[in-house]
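ok here's Phenylalanine--tRNA ligase alpha subunit, seq below lol
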Amino acid sequence: MKEKLETIHKEAVAKIKDINDMKSLQELRVKYLGKKGSITSVLRGMGKLAKEERPIIGEMANKIRQAITSSIEEKQAKLEQEAMDKQLQEEVIDVTLPGRPIQVGGPHLLTHIVQEIEDLFIGMGFEVKEGPQVETDYYNFEALNLPQNHPARDMQDSFYITNELLLRTHTSPVQARTMNAYKGEKPVKMICPGVVYRRDHDDATHSHQFNQIEGLYVDKDVRMSDLKGILNLFAKKMFGEDREIRLRPSFFPFTEPSVEMDISCKVCSKKGCSVCKQTGWIEVLGGGMVHPRVLEMAGYDPKVYTGFAFGMGTDRIAMLKYGVNDIRQFYMNDKRFVTQYHQA
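and the structure came out like this:
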């Protein structure tokens, strides 16, 4: 049995020297050291040896196993190094070549528009306020002169969570909350940007989720002319100094009188075209003087305080300013669309 182990050792070492690939080396490992390998077969025959010979053969077998294992590991390290050297020779890297440019992101177009509008109104002394997107029926409707069963509620088809909670349909509740917090004791001059929700069919000009920015100014002797001046400045800063505005009578439950603001069409200069539907004007936002009932419910004396409010769709402002013809493009995460406005 000693002779057989020595023969296995010599044979394995010789074959290891001649091997030139990892697959053959692994096959040789299994042949000599595996569960059905040569050394294991020899050890299974130890039961036929005399009792005093078994320790000697066992020790010899372990030494040969370790020797073969060591040879295989050395050969494996050598083959791996040779493979690495070959790869380095074949894969030459020119370190003088310019690196690949890193793509730098930027704000989404809607984010950019919100920031631009915020900067404009902050410069006019307005504060930026925020409120919850899940709103109570009171602040979303009743505090804005829209009591239960008021027909104007049909204008804003809502996502109700319970009888008293819903996803806000506009950012006006932030105005009501702010006036309530001030308890009629000091003026309010604020804008409130945010996401709003309405039950609507998504198409090129409508979405069940969109963005609004609303403004509120309540103080002593606030007049409609103040609102017109603010909106005129907004239109010129947002759409160009040559833009003109007009105010048309309208109806909103929380303002009286109420108006809608149009801007002159940039494409046709008020001559009439397909963009402005041959009118020369494009609707932008709504507003008006805060209804005395709204002031009263918020704790302000309507005989002392007056105010104006206005609201605009951020998505619509972006569409008009940059010529976007489908509101869905804002939400589809198409990089070809989004990256156009990183430098906007």
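fwiw The mean pLDDT is 87. kinda neat tbh
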